[in-house]
Automatic annotation (TrEMBL):
It comes from the Eukaryota. Residues 57-177 form the Hemerythrin-like domain. InterPro entries: Hemerythrin-like (IPR012312). This is Hemerythrin-like domain-containing protein. CDD domains: Hr-like. PANTHER family: HHE DOMAIN PROTEIN (AFU_ORTHOLOGUE AFUA_4G00730). It comes from Chlamydomonas reinhardtii.
């Protein structure tokens, strides 16, 4: 009986160390963007970054952010021709549109619900995603072939510069303050992660700066517009929109 208890304890110990090891890559990817957060806040944010169930919304959002940075680095890499840059530009437009749409359906309303509109406006900033959508709409009307590689890259750089500031704000200011609110725990973050995943599944894939950006109107507008974007993407990506 004693031997059985000792074996069970060893098994539980090795399971928890395996789980800790599995969680490490997600913690590492989100931690590199949060270097300016206070240590205690940063530690609590890291603790909430993954749960034993579904991934937390924080880790999902931050993984998207890392993906945008990787695509932009790839765009600026050596041996990239115009066609390759065009495909990466289109992929960035698609990924950023989906991400912004899901944040506006799930994360931002949750922040508003818990903070109230006035405090949420202060934390999120008045502009939100608007300027990024405006710039990506301009970019979406351009092509490398029609406007030239230099002009296309300059417009994309403008959008990415703004996006980098926005990402820095979200990861180092907005998420830490949200995670410190009463009632925000690992279960909630995991639940929101599931909702975020669902919102991305029916998200728009092009920027729509004139569309409503708050529930419930944004949800209705996204559902009505997403099929049109999907049809346009089938043409743009020759029947194979990227799945990243
Ligand atoms: Fe955002
Ligand atoms: Fe974001």
């Amino acid at each position: 009986m004693l031997l059985l208890r000792a074996a069970t304890a060893r098994l539980q110990l090795s399971q928890s160390s395996l789980a800790a090891r599995a969680a490490r890559p997600l913690l590492a990817s989100s931690s590199s963007y949060a270097s300016s957060a206070p240590a205690s806040l940063f530690a609590s944010l890291r603790a909430m970054a993954t749960t034993m169930g579904s991934p937390s919304i924080i880790s999902m959002i931050n993984q998207d952010h890392a993906k945008f940075k990787n695509l932009w680095n790839e765009y600026q890499g050596p041996n990239m021709n115009g066609e390759m840059k065009q495909k990466l530009g289109w992929a960035l437009i698609r990924e950023i549109a989906m991400h912004s749409s899901a944040e506006e359906e799930v994360m931002y309303p949750e922040i508003r619900k818990r903070l109230g509109d006035q405090a949420a406006d202060m934390l999120l900033g008045q502009d939100g995603h608007q300027h990024i959508k405006d710039l990506l709409t301009e970019l979406d009307r351009m092509t490398v072939e029609k406007d030239g590689e230099a002009a296309y890259t300059a417009k994309l750089k403008q959008a990415m510069d703004h996006l980098y500031h926005h990402i820095d704000d979200e990861e180092n200011k907005v998420w830490p303050q949200f995670c410190a609110l009463p009632g925000v725990d690992a279960d909630l973050l995991s639940h929101l992660g599931k909702k975020f995943e669902g919102a991305k599944a029916h998200a728009v894939t092009r920027p729509h700066p004139w569309a409503p950006n708050k529930p419930p109107l944004n949800v209705i507008a996204n559902m009505a517009t997403a099929p049109l974007d999907a049809a346009a993407d089938m043409w743009r990506f020759a029947g194979h929109p990227p799945t990243m």
